Amino acid sequence: MPDAAALARLTARLDKPVVMVGLMGVGKSTVGKRLSQCLNTPFVDADDEVVKAAQMSIPEIFDRFGEDYFRDGERRVIARLIEENAGRPAVIATGGGAFADDETRALILDRAIAVWLYADLDTLVARVGRKNTRPLLTGRNPREVLGELMERRGPAYAQAPIRVISDAGPQSNGVARIIAALEDYLA
Ligand code: S3P
Questions:
Q1: How confident is the model at residue 131 (pLDDT cuts 50, 70, 90)?
Q2: How many angstroms does the Cα of residue 23 sit away from the middle of ligand 1?
Q3: For residues 104 and 153, is the Cβ–Cβ distance under 8 A?
Q4: For this protein, what reaction is catalysed (predicted)?
């Protein structure tokens, strides 16, 4: 990990928010938050902002209004977060489906630096097992759903200019890899 002065120099060069993308369970929020602490930037989680705006939990939104309605809200919320953080360093974590939405992805690619955090299926399955807040997994086999989403969303995620593995090791490894990748990207 670079020293504090080097991190400050990196932050000073960031003229766009960093947006974390990738599948459920990969660690976008945890790693994104730690990244923002290292870079000393604001952090915002798009899923949390969707919940705040709708005043409903994500399972409740899916239940009552369906996935398309959730995607519309998610698209608007991410557009607002990107606008609010335009031209400045910040870290925004998104929900796993956000970058698979054509409009949201185009906006992120245009106005932010997308970081695709990826992991193998075993790691994802182990990580999602700990939480029961994901409607796409409720009552289904997480390995099957995640495997299918990995295939379907892979081409979208692959458009991110930065890709970083988030393996089973400590999350700080992921943060250090993103920092190194950002150094290269901005060089
Ligand atoms: C979703 C991922 C979730 C949340 C919603 C839908 C998806 O976010 O946005 O349940 O379509 O992959 P996380 O990736 O933070 O779990």
A1: low
A2: 7
A3: no
A4: shikimate + ATP = 3-phosphoshikimate + ADP + H(+)
- Give the position of tokens 């399955």: 125
Is the model's pTM score more than 0.85? yes
Q: Strand pairing partners for 165?
A: 118
Phi, psi of 116, deg, nearest 5: -90, 115
CA distances 46 to 40, 112, 123, 125, Å, are: 19, 14, 23, 22
Question: What pLDDT, in 10s, does the model give residues 68-108?
Answer: 999 999 999 999 999 999 999 999 999 999 999 999 999 99
Cβ neighbours of 72 (radius 10 Å) = 12
Ligand 1 contact, 96 CB (< 6 A): yes
Do residues 92 and 19 make contact, with C-beta atoms less than 8 angstroms apart? yes
Strands 18-21 and 91-93 come out as: parallel
All domains of the chain in start order, with CATH: 4-186 (3.40.50.300)
Distance 8 CA to ligand 1 centre (A): 31
Q: Is the CB of 58 under 6 A from ligand 1?
A: yes
Ligand 1 in reach of 95 Cβ (< 6 A): yes
